[in-house]
Specification:
Blueprint (H helix, E strand, L loop, with lengths): L2 H6 L5 E3 L8 H9 L4 E4 L5 H14 L4 E6 L5 H10 L4 E5 L4 H9 L3 E6 L2 H9 L4 E5 L5 E2 L7 H11 L4 E4 L5 H9 L4 E4 L1 H4 L8 H9 L5 E4 L6 E4 L2 H10 L5 H8 L3 H7 L23 H19 L5
Parallel strand pairs: 1-9, 2-3, 3-4, 4-5, 5-6, 6-8, 8-9
Antiparallel strand pairs: 7-11, 10-11
Helix pairs in contact: 2-3, 3-4, 6-7, 8-14
Length: 314
């Protein structure tokens, strides 16, 4: 039996990334209903909004789902308490030290997964007692590791160091990508950009259409002084690059970024001034589809690729 399907009690080892402004209860419940593991993205929610999404998700699915919690946020304690109060059984943590909250969550019977960008952090997460790790290569959209390690090299390096289940993320949107990640040592995969461009994603339609229309080379990692983030090359991205030519201070970059820039782009659909976080795999995403169709197509592609793999000859 697959370690990830067993750990989460799901049909397919496919996890939906807990993306800000994309991952409301509609997306999470749709992924869970289709046999994967849906995650509510707490990163763009006030505590009471998160509570509402958890309650709605419980009504929309009787399958397991989880909450993704970036640990950078000031009201983290309130968020953790809401997760416990609402009976959430799976939590993915990111952007912080796994030691901080893992034992608290484990004591409440919650399965904990931590997102990492290197084998060093994967080992630290294992030592902190997490049940699994997501190793995310720098092809991924949104916030990324400073190491810029690609998924192709990251997965086998992490696999070599840890004993707990491993989920691959970054640059995966097809069944073939999933099979490749599993051959490299992953037990399952996490998809962000592919689910962002789904019917059930809470993102603005302008943003979904942009994902479909973003070609190879249309994204780039930037703002490393603040937190490395992969963005679509739009007007805001160009403004960032123009500022870099003037050797800006960290404060200058913070001022340009301003507040709610990601909300403006992904949730409100401002494709000029918004921060548009998408992975390199967008070049392989050609249409906005319902979640169940995305997962069906992915599993079909996975099975076809598996059969082809057995027929390699040299």
């Amino acid at each position: 039996m697959n370690k990830i399907t067993q750990l989460f009690n799901i049909k397919y080892p496919i996890i939906q990334g807990g993306m800000i402004w994309n991952s409301g209860y509609k997306l999470a419940s749709a992924v869970s209903n289709a046999g994967g593991l849906g995650l509510i993205g707490a990163g763009s929610m006030y505590p009471e909004v998160l509570r509402e999404h958890i309650q709605k998700c419980k009504k929309a699915t009787n399958k397991p789902f989880g909450v993704n919690i970036p640990m950078l946020y000031p009201n983290i304690e309130e968020i953790m308490n809401i997760v416990v109060e609402e009976g959430v059984t799976i939590v993915f943590t990111s952007a912080g030290n796994p030691k901080t909250w893992t034992s608290f969550l484990k004591e409440k019977g919650i399965t904990v997964v931590h997102v990492v960008s290197s084998s060093i952090f994967a080992l630290k997460a294992q030592q902190a007692g997490v049940d699994a790790v997501v190793a995310e290569g720098f092809e991924a959209g949104g916030h990324n590791g400073r190491e810029e390690t690609t998924t192709l090299t990251l997965i086998p390096m992490v696999k070599e160091k840890i004993k707990i289940p491993l989920i691959a993320a970054g640059g995966i949107a097809t069944g073939r990508g999933m099979l490749a990640a599993m051959i490299l040592g992953a037990d399952g995969v996490q998809l962000g950009s592919r689910f962002a461009a789904s019917v059930e994603s809470s993102a603005h339609n302008n943003f979904k259409e942009l994902i479909v229309n973003t070609k190879e080379g249309g994204t780039q990692l930037t703002l490393k002084e603040l937190a490395p983030v992969r963005l679509v090359k739009n007007k805001f991205f160009d403004d960032v690059q123009a500022l870099y030519e003037k050797c800006p201070s960290k404060e200058d970059l913070v001022q340009l970024l301003g507040r709610a820039r990601a909300k403006k782009g992904m949730f409100e659909g401002d494709l000029e001034e918004g921060e548009l976080e998408i992975g390199q795999i967008s070049g392989l995403i050609h249409e906005i589809l319902p979640v169940d169709k995305i997962i069906q197509e992915m599993m079909s592609d996975f099975e076809t690729a598996q059969k082809e793999k057995t027929s390699f000859e040299f």
